[in-house]
Queue: 2 jobs
Job 1
Amino acid sequence: MKEYLEENLKNIDFYGFKVLQLKKDPDSAWYKAYKAVATAFSELISDASEQGQLAWKGSNADAEGVFNSTLGQSEKAFRGAGASAPVEEVKKQSIDLLADIKSGKTVN
């Protein structure tokens, strides 16, 4: 996990350097703020994974239920209370995607 997070920060630096070369204050400030948030997030995830806090603690049988209930709640919050039809379509697509993942199909 730590190597992945470090690689992600390096990618941010790679593109961020190009932004800094433009020497535009708003863009430079945005990059620096984004980098600070990404660094803090990486440290949080790295610390949590080292302490075993990111391990799945549920059962494999319940994973699909957790996935579906969490996705449904996130979509309702994102789309607003009045958008029930699109949420159901997204749930259906996510269930289909989850089935494809479980069966080993690749999604392009």
Job 2
Amino acid sequence: MRYTVNERDRALLLSDQIGLAEAARELQIPYNTLAGWRTRRKRMQQEARSRQADPEQKDGYIMYLEGQIRILKAENSLLNQTLETIAGAKEQKK
């Protein structure tokens, strides 16, 4: 099963708060999937710290962050459109 970025981020946050096993159970995400996300996040954080020390490695990380920004902008746009649709539907009911 594929998970959205928001689902993954929510699961990671919850696992930080209540623990890996409990978050996996509560969200019904396989334990190994959530554990893999946590491992990948830790590795990315370590790489980010090392890139800060090595300016030549920053280009790839900047490209990654720019991609993340594009994804977030698209998701934000979709959420705004959904909100406008809901608000419009409520106005029509009045």
